[in-house]
Protein 1
Amino acid sequence: MKIDFLTLFPDMFSPLHQSITGRAERAGIAEIRAHDIRQYTKDRHFKCDDVPYGGGAGMVMTPQPIVDAVRAVDPDGKARRIYMSPRGRVFDAAAAKELAEENRLLFLCGHYEGVDERALEICGFEELSIGDYVLTGGELAAMIVADALLRFVPGVLSEGSADEESFSAGLLEYPQYTRPAVFEGRSVPEVLLSGHHEKIAEWRRKKAEELTALRRPDLLR
Ligand code: ADE
């Protein structure tokens, strides 16, 4: 899986080079690159934004540096192109699984009041949102999407980990415990110490259903 990010702030992407996604990178399972859009501007002052036509607050990212960056990074149009925006389809576990099937992804991270619409049209970007709130830029949103989808790329997690967690069966995850068996007077549920796999699976299923009914009844509908 190759993931490219187009951004005005390439240094923001260091978190993806850490922990599990960083390990996937070092193992050659994921290739993660952040490209500075400013390197592609033809403006002599390196400007990448301008005032909106029609007036209004804030600045809009100009189309030329974006279109040239896309053409340089993905010259054959092999990548699925995604613009992070609160206007987009709302990202969820199903979308993460779907994106994990792709070989190449190209994320455009906007800043200021957005990007010139023509850049999105020319490059064929689909839009993706991480929720109904507005961030100062698309970088954190793109990293969230990349992290969540990489978990579904084979080899990134230990086998089975992505199947047994929240949302995998449309339910929230059951409570987990580890050693010690008693901590500050609180014991681990007896059944988990029993070694009885069927009973454990049944208990976990019941707990997952109870938690989902309590906290996210919308998931059960
Ligand atoms: N950029 C700003 N807000 C965003 C959001 N909610 N989702 C994706 N990209 C964004």
Note: The helical segments are 19-26, 63-73, 93-100, 117-123, 139-150, 197-215, 217-220.
Protein 2
Amino acid sequence: MKNFNPADNIQDLQYFGEFGGVNPSISDSSTYTFLSAKTMFDTFEGNMEGCYLYSRHSSPSNLYLDKALAAMEGTETANVSASGMGAITPTLLQLCGTGDHIVSSRTIYGGTYAFLKNFAPRLGIKTTFVDITKLDVVEAAITSETKVLYCETVSNPLLEVADIASLAKIAKKYNLKLVVDNTFSPLSVSPARLGADIVIHSLTKYINGSSDTVGGVTCASQEFIDSLKNVNSGASMLLGPTMDSLRSASVMKNLRTLHIRMKQHSYNAMYLAERFEKDGLKTVYPGLASHPSHEIYKTMINPEYGFGGMMTLDVGTLAKANELMELMQAKNLGYLAVSLGFYKTLFSAPGTSTSSEIPMDEQIAMGLTDGLIRFSIGLDNDIERTYQMMKKCMIELNVLT
Ligand code: PLP
């Protein structure tokens, strides 16, 4: 089988602008003309490839980005959306209806957790949350109503790793769709190559990489994406989370540097994780041998892109975490902000921010401690300098001695 390299697949795409520009022209239209009424009818029926109808359905700019992200993930096609949640919720609603059941990892992005826990039940969709690293527990949670197995490759915020190949086998055995949110590990992991049916990203994070927009994508088979966009029954078409063409053009430009950025994020995160672990801090990073899923993750990654840019440090208490984050921001080491994948380091305490939707008793059960700081490590040029500056902040606050 031909070696699969997601960055090469993006590199190999060649688009020309309308006037031969090296960037494809941006389609600045919400609606499209037809030279004949018959073509318009056929397009509505879904029979006219290459014809555009209305930009909530698709636009040339969005299709360029769809194609690039499908090439990156090795799926037949893709559908971009206005946000990561705008990809996740229509995908799950397309797969599940009243009476259906989802088995989901319990350590997932707080918004997805809140959707599954609080919103989906209003539509008759129930979810069982499990420890995704325990395959026997995952299998035991499946019922005759289960339609979907849902997880994040590397989970938010605990950085648990889902063994996608094994989960894919379980999904196949019970005829479920394995849906994987790969937001934390673009290029590093290619879930569809490991057997996932559908791969989702919040483009807001690494893929766009400049924290200037929200965006999302669902990468899947042509059949599934056609169903999402069906004018009569497609959740994306009917709920309307469409990405704007101007935005898809700008995300597309940023996608071209993703491979360089991911290598630097991974290098920097590994560097800091090794140092802080050696200093005696409770450090979680999938690249460390101490990470419970390190060995399995090593077999899953496309090694040149590394173990990713996300790391957590536990500094004991929320008060200490807050003090440290404020000091690091004051020293210009990064921003006290949610989200990830920016050129500067971002840090937040997940228990009181991105995972605050998760009730306290459940946070404790899943190991989400008070003093946990989630870092999205930036593209810093001199990471030893950054390490020394961070360490100084920690010594000043008695986090390190
Ligand atoms: N998935 C993960 C892993 C996330 O971290 C986030 C946002 O933080 C989302 C999905 C939601 O994406 P968006 O904010 O683009 O809707």
Note: The two ends are 53 Å apart (CA to CA).
